[in-house]
Amino acid sequence: MTEYVEVTSEEQLRELLPPPIKRVAEKSRPALHPLDRDWLAASPMCLIATSAADGTCDVSPKGDPPGFTHVLGDRRIAIPERPGNRRADGFHNILANPHVGLIYLLPGRGDTLRINGRARIVRDAPFFDELVVRGHRPQLALVVDIDEVFHHCAKAFLRSKLWDSSTWIPGAVASRAQIAKELERPDDEIADLERYYGPEYAEHIYR
After folding, report:
1. What single string gives the DSSP state of each residue in 162-190?
2. What letter does residue 133 receive in the DSSP assignment?
3. Cα–Cα distances in Å, from 203 out to 5, 30, 200, 206?
4. How far is CA 175 from the centre of its chain?
5. Regarding beta strands 45-51 and 99-105, do their DSSP bridges make them parallel or antiparallel, or are they unpaired?
6. What is the pLDDT of residues 39-57, one digit of tens each?
């Protein structure tokens, strides 16, 4: 059996990872700066991390046209919910534990915008009319009260070469249809799944 040498205290951790320099340790802010608002206006994608009361975690991607996150003030934003698989894992977590972590991405950029705060699930509000996309008015939105916001460097994206298209190999693993056939929908014909997840799939993402 493999034996692991674990880090079990903050002291042990800091022996390997010394504390950050002052400007990094103190870069978080409690409210949006105009540059943060610009980032939100340009971003088409964010990842939302949540945790249930028992510590169970979830990370959910949210994507829409750039600027989909609605800024309600310097310390409050709203994220519309669009049709999906209806598991609502993150929503269930938020009902038990409102703390959320968000990472906002810009295609082609390695740096990211991070927002941590406390979320509420809202079923209607006047600003919902401003969240309509392709005629779809969301049934729910996540309203996040900001605790801290800061920008994160590009090292992870540079190491992974995420935006370097010469490294992209989408066929390196099974197709979405093949994964569904193997793990989720074994009774469906693969041809039907290939059609379902084919070019027409994008036409139904707001239904």
Report:
1. TT-GGG--GGGS--HHHHIIIII-TTS-H
2. B
3. 50, 39, 5, 8
4. 22
5. antiparallel
6. 999 999 999 999 999 999 9
The distance of Cα 54 from the centroid of its chain, to the nearest Å, equals 21
Among 183, 205, 182, 181, smallest CA distance to 193 is for 181
- The Cα–Cα gap between 42 and 71 comes to 12
Q: 62-111: per-residue pLDDT in tens? A: 999 999 999 999 999 999 999 989 999 999 999 999 999 999 999 999 99
- Domain 25-159 is found in CATH 2.40.50.100: no
Break the chain into its structural domains and give their ranges.
Answer: 25-159, 169-204
Residue with tokens 């991390």: 49
pTM of the model: 0.94
